[in-house]
C-alpha cells in the first residue's frame, strides 16, 4: 500500500513542480504575445478570459487589440496578484507530495504543508477582488475619460473556493490532532 502511495505521490509531485515552473511562463507569454503565441490568430481577444474568467467588461469598454506594451506590462504585474498564491500552493503541494514520496504520511511536516496550502488558498480568494478591480482598470486605462472602469464581482466560484480552503484547513487541524494522539499512544507504555 505504501509503495502505491509513493508511486502516485511521485507523479503528483512532478505535476505540481511542472505547474509551478510553467505557470509564470504561460502568464508572461500570454501578456507579452497578446495571446497570439498560444492561441493563434485572433487569440488576443481571449486574453481577458484566460487571465481572469469573470472580468466584467462589455463590448463598449473592451480594450483595443493588440494591447500597447505599457498595458501588457501592467497586466502582467496585476496578474502576479493571483499567480503568487497559486504558485505558493503549488510549492506547498510539491513539498507535501515529496514527503509522501519519502514515506512520511501522518507527520507534523505533512500537516504543516496541508495547513499552509489551505491558508494560501484562502489568501488567494481574498485577493481576487483586488485583482479584478486592478485588471479592469488596466484593460480600460487607455479608454477615453468616462469609459474607464474598476469592477468587482463576487461569484459562486469564490464561495466554493472559500469553502474548499476552509475544509483543507479543517482537515489539517483534524490530522494534527490525530497525529498528536498517535504520538501520545506511542509514548505510553
TrEMBL record:
Q: Where exactly are the transmembrane stretches of this chain? A: 12-32, 73-97, 118-139, 159-175
**Matching InterPro entries:** DUF2975
* Keyword annotations from UniProtKB, A to Z: Membrane, Transmembrane, Transmembrane helix
Query: Does the record bear Transmembrane helix in its keywords?
Result: yes
Tell me if Transmembrane is a UniProt keyword of this record. yes
- The protein depicted here goes by the name DUF2975 domain-containing protein
Source organism per UniProt = Pseudodesulfovibrio methanolicus
Amino acid at each position: 500500500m505504501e509503495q502505491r502511495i509513493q508511486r502516485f505521490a511521485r507523479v503528483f509531485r512532478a505535476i505540481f513542480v511542472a505547474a509551478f515552473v510553467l505557470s509564470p511562463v504561460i502568464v508572461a507569454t500570454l501578456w507579452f504575445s497578446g495571446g497570439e503565441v498560444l492561441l493563434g490568430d485572433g487569440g488576443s481577444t481571449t486574453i481577458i478570459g484566460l487571465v481572469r474568467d469573470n472580468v466584467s467588461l462589455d463590448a463598449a469598454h473592451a480594450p483595443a487589440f493588440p494591447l500597447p506594451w505599457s498595458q501588457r506590462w501592467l497586466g502582467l504585474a496585476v496578474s502576479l496578484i493571483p499567480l503568487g498564491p497559486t504558485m505558493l500552493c503549488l510549492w506547498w503541494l510539491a513539498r507535501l507530495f515529496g514527503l509522501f514520496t519519502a514515506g512520511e504520511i501522518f507527520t507534523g511536516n505533512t500537516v504543516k504543508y496541508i495547513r499552509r496550502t489551505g491558508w494560501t488558498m484562502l489568501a488567494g480568494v481574498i485577493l481576487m477582488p483586488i485583482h479584478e478591480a486592478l485588471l479592469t482598470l488596466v484593460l480600460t486605462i487607455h479608454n477615453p475619460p468616462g469609459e474607464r472602469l474598476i469592477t468587482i464581482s463576487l461569484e459562486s466560484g469564490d464561495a466554493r473556493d472559500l469553502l474548499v480552503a476552509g475544509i483543507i484547513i479543517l482537515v489539517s487541524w483534524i490530522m494534527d490532532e490525530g497525529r498528536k494522539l498517535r504520538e501520545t499512544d506511542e509514548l505510553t507504555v
